[in-house]
Design brief:
The complex is a heterodimer of chains A (307) and B (342).
Chain A lengths: L1 H10 L2 H8 L1 H18 L1 H4 L41 H37 L1 H15 L3 H15 L2 H35 L3 H8 L4 H37 L11 H10 L7 H28 L5
Helix pairs in contact in A: 2-12, 3-5, 3-12, 5-6, 5-8, 5-10, 5-11, 5-12, 6-8, 7-8, 8-10, 9-10, 10-11, 10-12, 11-12
Chain B lengths: L1 H28 L3 H5 L6 H10 L6 H13 L13 H36 L4 H15 L2 H23 L16 E3 L2 E3 L4 H34 L2 H8 L4 H38 L5 H10 L3 H29 L1 H12 L3
Antiparallel strand pairs in B: 1-2
Chain lengths: 307, 342
């Protein structure tokens, strides 16, 4: 039984032991899994459908949350916004959108970074110089600034109406393009080490194409550090998306992520409706904190120097 | 030493030129500069004449050279959104951002270093554990959320409480704008009026908090490392007072990397001012940049990009030179590394 064997081996691995040893990591895992599960099941679990016009009414507007205020209504446990939409359902759908954008942007940055890093390290020469100088220049700027700039340029190229429809792709592209540098540098460094090893020389001697050598033989050997960067960057990508949406250049009001919800809440904050800001904010902070803790742990657990 | 400075200088100019190419391409090829300058009813022929007069039909390298010359003179063209000269728009908003950034950096440094020293000297004390945990949460909280929470507590809830207890409303802090400013030549300053200083408090804390946690964690880990070294043990053996050991020997040796990181973070502060300025409606460059992104106002974006690139390059250069000047160990290491060509 291959599966039983796999489970037995996994249950005795270093990673599992270091996982069990830390209560913080276990708590972070529980929180992450909980948020992932609830948000991806939101079409089933959410009590309301906040983005279908006609299923909510203005007369339910600005209801406070149940536990903290006497004016609450159990149909809307976390209260409603000024249009009468259920905040709990909006947060569930919004978290799903934040996660989708964060994961898609991380994967995009990873694929782009790996490809450029492989080419840069394996081919070398002028190609390497161009890619790495580009990386240097981009690294001079914070990722948020790069993403904002890309978003603005795309807005200049396509019209407003169409931009709202494409917003999710634009934001994934903008965040992905602003995070590729770290992957490319790491992969390039590993490739420079790997390409002089005997197995690569052997592959070259038997006449395999460079592309095949890169993807089939070199890539699997440089994936370890890449996965660690990806985990750490996931939290950062989610935060960047939230920040862009908060600034009003991310996801539109018709498809609100957590950042968009917080922006909508801030607009009515001075009238004392704190719940529209606080609940999405707490969700975002808990999600990012849990993902960051997992990323930190994974980095330490996979680092042979710290064993 | 001279070779090192020259090489760094050449790198900085190369970075600025690369950013210049990006800004030029944005300026020239994203959106049509002619559309921004003329009305709807201008004929095709008039447009073509204007195009010729402005030199938009010249070869790209010539246009790029002209763009660089104009940029060096502070001429960034007209905003698509307001039709004002971009150079003047940015100059008007520069003081607000710089005053905010300076306050935030001072706050982060003056609070972060003592907190880092404390947690580094007494890592097992309950307050150190608390600060360490709080800093982790601080890193995970997005800047805009911190700003909103501060507004909620010190502006919204506070005004409710002062009204109920009959206290003056002046105890609460303003949640938007700069307050009253004083004109010093072209520089408008909020440092000299009570309302200007009060308006600075919440934005400066919001902007500085992330840097504060960073500096605190850095000083803490450096202190933990330094306290284990032989020269600290030796200083104790000589019978020096705790204060002399902790501050004269330990802290001094941790400050070199801290100054480097703090300097580099100054650039990050200018970039993250975008978020803080949006939360607090602070009339600075960052707010201008966000508005220009929303309206695809390319000339403003290009000018902001160039200006921020210039700040970053200058800061990086200064920090590199400082590092080099402060740490004698690095000088010999740099010399051998330079001889080998990295």
């Amino acid at each position: 039984m291959a599966f039983v064997d796999l489970v037995r081996r996994a249950s005795d691995s270093d990673i599992w032991h270091s996982f069990k040893a830390s209560r913080v990591v276990i708590a972070a895992t529980v929180v992450t899994v909980f948020i992932f599960a609830v948000s991806f099941l939101s079409p089933v679990l959410a009590p309301h459908t906040p983005f279908e016009p006609g299923t909510y009414s203005l007369s339910d507007g600005l209801k406070p949350p149940v536990v903290f205020d006497d004016g609450g209504d159990w149909a809307f446990p976390l209260g409603t916004d000024e249009q009468g939409r259920d905040l709990l359902s909006m947060i569930m759908y919004g978290t799903r959108l934040s996660l989708v954008v964060g994961i898609a942007a991380t994967v995009f940055a990873m694929v782009l970074g790996i490809a450029l890093g492989l080419v840069s390290g394996y081919v070398g020469g002028a190609v390497d110089a161009v890619i790495m100088r580009l990386a240097d220049v981009q690294l001079t700027f914070p990722a948020l600034l790069v993403a904002l700039l890309i978003d603005g340029v795309v807005r200049g190229l396509i019209s407003g109406q169409r931009h709202d429809e494409l917003a999710i792709y634009v934001i994934v592209g903008a965040i992905g393009l602003s995070f590729w540098v770290q992957y490319a540098r790491t992969v390039r460094g590993s490739v420079l080490v790997e390409k002089n090893k005997e197995y690569v020389q052997a592959a070259r001697v038997i006449g395999l194409a460079p592309l095949l050598i890169m993807v089939r033989h070199v890539l699997p050997n440089v994936m370890g550090p890449v996965m660690v960067i990806a985990t750490i960057n996931l939290g950062l990508a989610i935060l960047t998306e939230a920040t862009l949406s908060f600034l009003g250049v991310g996801l539109p009001v018709t498809q609100p992520s957590l950042g968009t919800l917080i922006r909508l809440g801030q607009e009515v904050l001075l009238s004392g409706t704190w719940w529209i800001v606080i609940f999405p904010g707490v969700t975002l902070a808990a999600l990012v904190l849990a993902v960051n803790l997992l990323g930190d742990w994974l980095r330490d657990a996979l680092n042979p120097k710290l064993r | 030493m001279l070779a090192f400075i020259l090489r760094r200088l050449a790198q900085s100019i190369a970075v600025l030129l690369a950013v210049g190419v990006v800004a030029f391409m944005l300026f020239r090829y994203v959106g049509d500069p002619i559309n921004a300058m003329v009305g709807q009813d201008t004929s095709q022929q008039e447009r073509a004449e204007l195009r010729e007069k402005l030199g938009l039909n010249d070869p790209a390298p010539l246009q790029f050279a002209r763009f660089i010359v104009n940029t060096a003179q502070g001429k960034f063209g007209l905003s698509y959104r307001t039709s004002e000269p971009v150079g003047r728009m940015i100059l008007e908003r520069l003081p607000a951002t710089l005053e905010l950034a300076i306050c935030a950096a001072l706050f982060a440094f003056c609070v972060g270093v003592p907190m880092g020293v404390w947690t580094g000297l007494y890592p097992r004390h309950w307050s150190s554990r608390f600060l360490q945990a709080a800093s982790l949460i601080g890193v995970s909280l997005p800047t805009f959320l911190i700003g909103i929470l501060l507004i909620l507590v010190f502006a919204v809830e506070c005004s409710g409480w002062t009204a109920r207890l009959g206290l003056p409303a002046g105890l609460c802090l303003p949640s938007f704008g700069r307050g009253d400013t004083v004109q010093l030549g072209w520089w408008s300053s909020g440092y000299f009026t009570a309302s200007g200083l009060k308006a600075l408090i919440l934005p400066a804390i919001t902007l500085g908090l992330f840097q504060l946690t960073l500096i605190m964690r850095l000083v803490r880990s450096e202190m933990l490392e330094v306290m284990r070294t032989d020269y600290i043990k030796f200083a104790r053996a000589r019978g020096l007072t705790n204060r002399a050991v902790n501050f004269g020997h330990a802290l001094k040796n941790t400050l070199v990397p801290v100054i480097t990181i703090a300097g580099l973070q100054l650039g990050a502060i200018i970039a993250f001012a975008i978020v803080t300025e949006t939360v607090f409606s602070w009339p600075g460059m960052g707010l201008l940049f966000v508005q220009s992104v929303q309206f695809a106002d390319i000339p403003v974006m290009a000018a902001y990009l160039l200006l921020v690139a210039f700040f970053f390059v200058v800061i990086n250069l200064v920090v590199d030179l400082l590092y080099f000047a402060v740490d004698p160990r690095l000088r010999s290491g740099m010399a051998t590394a330079g001889a080998r060509g990295h």
